[in-house]
């Protein structure tokens, strides 16, 4: 891989992927949503070419022509998605549009002569299950977001096959890292604790798998050249503990970072309807294929987030 094109590059995964690719000598062009306040973090990275392009613009001729002049490209990473949280997850028109945007991205990848299309899906494609997630785990999504991600993965694979592109789909578990959204649990915890207030959380009995964005990015980079065409992989750390244990490590990291005791976390909020209580994947096959095992300890990742917030 010499030149990668990335949509949705302003989130935690996208920023980490850009950094990882550039560190390994890969040229990067990032497509960013016009006017997003998060674009500045991408533009500040050294070595990345930035171009504003909304999801609805991926099929436009002017975008294709502009990118053709910036190419050639090898791999197309599609991370962009509209309506990833809150009520938007069940906005059926919006989620259906995301499938169409994904197919536009495949056609754009073909027109730019990319050899491989890598899509970033979600554990939401599985719904709630006690199983260890993997390529063969049955998918029973329970909201429009998960249904659309699942449909986008399947339909983009068929279209890639029709157009002669290699296709890899990933289902990412809980990612944390610099650039994470303000509404994520990790962002809410760190921001609240740094402000000197006590966050109010659920009991945190969920069994959970968090992966640092840099480790997720390493997997994504290696999947560009791995023998993975036509495959679906779950990306996680492969390690689990209770969500409460993770939250306590966040509190400890804030204490270490600030040099003073962080406020206590209050575990008194009820679980929301449809709460996933078990999130775990086996990454043995993915690690064997890519030759990589996640390296970042959870607390070390939190400390990196805190340093970048400074």
Describe the fold and architecture.
The protein has 310 residues and is an alpha/beta fold. The protein has two domains: 3-174 and 211-235, NAD(P)-binding Rossmann-like Domain (Rossmann fold, 3-Layer(aba) Sandwich); 178-209 and 239-280 and 296-309, UDP-galactose 4-epimerase, domain 1 (Alpha-Beta Complex), CATH 3.90.25.10. Helices cover 40% and strands 17% of the residues. The protein contains ten helices and 13 strands. It has helices at residues 12-23, 39-43, 61-70, 92-111, 144-163, 185-194, 213-223, 243-258, 284-290, 298-309, and strands at 3-7, 27-32, 48-52, 75-78, 116-122, 166-172, 174-176, 200-201, 207-208, 210-212, 231-235, 241-242, 266-267. It has a seven-stranded parallel β-sheet with strand order 3-2-1-4-5-6-11, sandwiched between helices. Strands 7-10 form a two-stranded parallel ribbon. It has a two-stranded parallel sheet with strand order 8-13. Helix 2 (39-43) links the parallel strand 2 and strand 3 (48-52). Helix 1 (12-23) packs across helix 7 (213-223), helix 4 runs parallel beside helix 5 (144-163) and helix 8 (243-258) packs across helix 10. It is globular, with a radius of gyration of 19 Å. The model has no long low-confidence stretch (mean pLDDT 96).
């Amino acid at each position: 891989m010499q030149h990668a094109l990335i949509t949705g590059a302003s989130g935690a995964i996208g920023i980490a992927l850009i950094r990882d690719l550039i560190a390994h000598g890969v040229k990067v062009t990032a497509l960013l949503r016009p006017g997003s306040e998060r674009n500045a973090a991408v533009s500040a990275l050294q070595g990345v070419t930035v171009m504003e392009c909304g999801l609805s613009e991926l099929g436009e001729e002017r975008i294709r022509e502009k990118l053709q002049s910036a190419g050639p490209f090898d791999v197309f990473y599609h991370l962009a998605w509209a309506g990833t949280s809150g009520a938007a997850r069940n906005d059926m028109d919006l989620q259906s549009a995301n499938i169409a945007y994904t197919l536009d991205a495949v056609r754009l990848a073909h027109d730019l002569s990319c050899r491989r299309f890598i899509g970033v899906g979600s554990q939401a494609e599985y719904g709630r299950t006690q199983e260890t997630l993997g390529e063969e785990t049955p998918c029973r999504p329970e909201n429009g977001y998960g249904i659309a991600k699942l449909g986008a993965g399947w339909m983009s694979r068929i279209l890639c096959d029709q157009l002669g592109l290699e296709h890899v789909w990933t289902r990412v578990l809980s990612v944390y890292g610099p650039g994470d959204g303000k509404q994520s649990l990790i962002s809410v915890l760190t921001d609240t604790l740094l402000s000197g207030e006590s966050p109010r959380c659920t009991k945190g009995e969920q069994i959970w798998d968090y992966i640092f964005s840099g480790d997720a990015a390493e997997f994504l980079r290696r999947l560009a050249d791995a023998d993975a065409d036509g495959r679906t992989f779950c990306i996680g750390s492969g390690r689990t503990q209770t969500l409460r244990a993770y939250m306590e490590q966040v509190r400890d990291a804030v204490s270490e970072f600030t040099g003073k005791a962080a406020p206590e976390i209050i575990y008194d909020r009820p679980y929301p309807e449809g709460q996933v209580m078990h999130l775990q994947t086996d990454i043995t096959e993915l690690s064997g294929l890519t030759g990589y095992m996640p390296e970042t300890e959870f607390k070390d990742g939190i400390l990196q987030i805190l340093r970048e917030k400074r």
